[in-house]
Amino acid sequence: MNIPLSCPDLTQKEIDAVTQVLRTPQLSLGPTLLDFERRIAEYVGREHAVAVSSGTAALHLIVRALGIGPGDEVVTTPFSFISSANCMLFEHARPVFVDIDPVTLNMDVARIEKVITPRTRAILTVDVFGLPADWTALEKVAGRHGLTLIEDSCEALGAEYHGRKAGTFGRAAAFAFYPNKQMTMGEGGAIVTDDAEVARLCRSMRNQGRGEDAAWLQHERLGYNYRLSELHCALGVAQLERLDELLAKRERVAGMYNQRLGAWEAVSIPCEVSGVKRSWFVYVVVMDRRYSQEQRDTTLQKLQERGIGCSNYFTPIHLQPFYRDMFGYKRGDFPTTEQIAARTIALPFYGNLSEEQVEYVVTSLREALSKV
Ligand SMILES: *Cc1c(COP(=O)(O)O)cnc(C)c1O
To answer: Residue ranges of the chain with pLDDT lower than 70?
Structure first.
């Protein structure tokens, strides 16, 4: 059996939507972009949405729009995909890491105040693996110190925190639509915000710094080409229309794993937090503490030999070679992050996984673990 780690869920509807755009003369900056932005803003419950070429581009533009730059510090998590910290480096600001909570795997809010300095400008929080961070506590800390909150909700589209959707926290939030996310545009991202000025700046910077009504070759500020084509947006609209279905299918698969792995002491399954609804992005189990990183890696290898797509998730950002070089980080700096990261296994996860496939993955995992 061959089971990939992730797989987009596309139907004839998506194919038709993209094909239809190809029959029009307008392949970028057209009506589908506006349609996508209106729909994603409405879905999340924000005033404005600006669609861009990736989640990373969305994060970068948020940081820039907030005027975060050289000398500034932004508190964030080392247990994330690298772009949630890189977006500060793009602007020569410094990401300042705090360790994570070992259960939720989100930033441990209680540790934030210890790292705040006069240079701290913002807290950039990631809703890791689709589980919203502790936003009530975050809003309190940010309020107390006059810091701006930024939400990296790239893994959390559709998640809810006490009735509020992921993407509604902080001054602005970022979403991503790479093929392994809950919904995809092939590549793509979006900034959502209630702040008209942030939205205006992001819209301008996505399109080479052009002003709203300025002529094509009038550039008011430094900008980028972070545009998203009409083809991407058509795919996005079609996927958004199916989003409830996509999320429900993923939740069902997570339930199949939970049921089979929940009572097994060798691994812990993704946690549940009361009042918080996870949006299933990946299915990551953490091996028990008695296992070493080597044993985890052997397990991954054994699963791969059986045709099962799997991976560790994540390698801590502070241990990435260029972070070590730039900031002198070393093993031991963020022990919880490191201990968790050494024992994670992301199992194949997507909406169209069958019960039979889940069964095969679980059986293979049990076998592999019994032999390491
Ligand atoms: C996917 C993701 C992003 C953005 O990814 P892109 O590939 O640039 O779209 C950013 N942060 C996190 C936490 C992510 O998982």
So the answer is: none
